[in-house]
Specification:
Blueprint (H helix, E strand, L loop, with lengths): L1 E2 L14 E2 L11 E8 L4 E7 L3 E6 L12 E2 L6 H7 L5 E7 L3 E7 L4 E8 L11 E5 L7 E9 L2 E9 L5 E8 L7 E2 L26 E5 L16 E6 L14 E6 L6
Antiparallel strand pairs: 1-2, 3-4, 4-5, 5-6, 7-8, 8-9, 9-10, 11-12, 12-13, 13-14, 15-16, 16-17
C-alpha cells in the first residue's frame, strides 16, 4: 500500500509516494485500504486485507510512518466465510459505525456480502460472526463494498459488479439502518450507480471500468457521513485494451463528480 498527500486533485499525479511497508505495517500482503477517524479513541484507523481482516492505527494522519503493526479482527478466517467463498477469496473489508455499534462488511467474490459487528465501546475487539447482508450471483455482487450515512437515518451501499461486457461498475442500495434490509436504488447494469455508460469523461474515455474506490469525505469520523448533494468518488480504471492478470493490470486513479444532484 502507498500513501500520498496533496491539497488539490490537480496535484495528485505529482505527489510523492510513501510506501507503507516503511512503517510498522511492514512488508507482505496488504491491500484494499479504508481510512477513518475513530473519534472515541482519537485515533485514525486503516482497515485492509492481509489474508484476514486487518487494521492499523495512527494518532496523526499526516505522518505515514506512524501506522502501527497489523492486528486482525479475527484470530482466523471465520467459518461462515470459508464455507461460502469456495475457491474464491475473502476480500475488501469496510468498517462503519452508528451510535451504538461498529460494523465490518466484507466480500467473498462469490456473490455474498457479509456483515459482522461489535459495540462502539469494544471496537476493535469483539467482532461477531459474519452473517450474509446481501447476496446475488457471483459477478453481480462481486467485491469492493462501501457503506455511507447520507443523513435522515438513511445509509447508502455500493458494491462492485462485473458487467456482461467484462468491465466493472457499481450497483447501489439504501437502508434505514446499517444492519437492516437493503433496497435497490440504482442497482442494475442498465441503471447503474456508476458505469462507463453513465459517465461523461473530460476528454477521451480512458477506461470502461469504474472499479474499487471510496467517496471523498469532509466528515472523517467513524460514521462515514457524506452529503448526497455533491458526491465525488475516487476510483480505479484502466486502459480498455489492457490484458493480463488482475494484479498486473495498469490500474490508474480517476475522480467521478456528481452532476445530476436533485438537491
Amino acid at each position: 500500500m502507498v500513501y500520498i498527500t496533496f491539497t488539490d486533485f490537480a496535484d495528485a499525479g505529482s505527489a510523492s509516494f510513501y510506501y507503507l511497508d516503511q512503517s510498522s505495517i511492514s512488508t507482505g500482503y496488504r491491500a484494499a485500504p479504508e481510512v477513518f477517524y475513530f473519534e472515541p479513541q482519537k485515533l485514525w484507523y486503516l482497515v485492509y486485507q492481509n489474508g484476514n481482516a486487518a487494521y492499523s492505527t495512527n494518532a496523526d494522519i499526516t505522518d505515514p510512518s506512524g501506522w502501527t503493526a497489523p492486528k486482525t479482527f479475527y484470530s482466523s478466517e471465520p467459518a461462515a466465510i470459508t464455507a461460502a467463498r469456495g475457491s474464491n477469496a475473502w476480500v475488501d473489508m469496510w468498517v462503519i459505525c452508528d451510535t451504538d455499534s461498529c460494523y465490518l462488511f466484507s466480500s467473498d467474490d462469490n456473490g455474498q456480502l457479509f456483515r459482522s459487528s461489535t459495540s462502539v465501546a469494544d471496537f476493535p475487539s469483539g467482532m461477531g460472526e459474519p452473517v450474509v447482508a446481501l447476496e446475488d450471483s457471483q459477478y453481480a455482487l462481486f467485491e469492493a463494498s462501501n457503506v455511507y450515512s447520507v443523513g435522515d437515518g438513511t445509509y447508502l451501499l455500493i458494491v462492485e459488479a462485473i458487467g456482461n461486457d467484462g468491465n466493472r461498475y457499481f450497483r447501489s442500495w439504501t437502508s434505514d439502518s446499517i444492519d437492516g434490509t437493503w433496497t435497490g436504488l440504482a442497482d442494475t447494469e442498465s441503471n447503474p450507480f456508476a458505469k462507463s455508460t453513465n459517465v461523461v469523461f473530460d476528454g477521451d474515455a480512458w477506461t470502461k471500468s469504474i472499479s474499487h474506490g471510496e467517496m471523498v469525505r469532509t466528515h472523517v469520523d467513524q460514521t462515514l457521513s457524506i452529503s448526497p448533494c455533491n458526491l465525488q468518488y475516487l476510483y480505479q480504471g484502466l486502459d480498455p485494451t489492457a490484458t493480463g492478470d488482475y494484479n498486473t493490470l495498469p490500474w490508474s486513479l480517476g475522480l467521478l463528480t456528481q452532476t445530476n444532484s436533485a438537491c
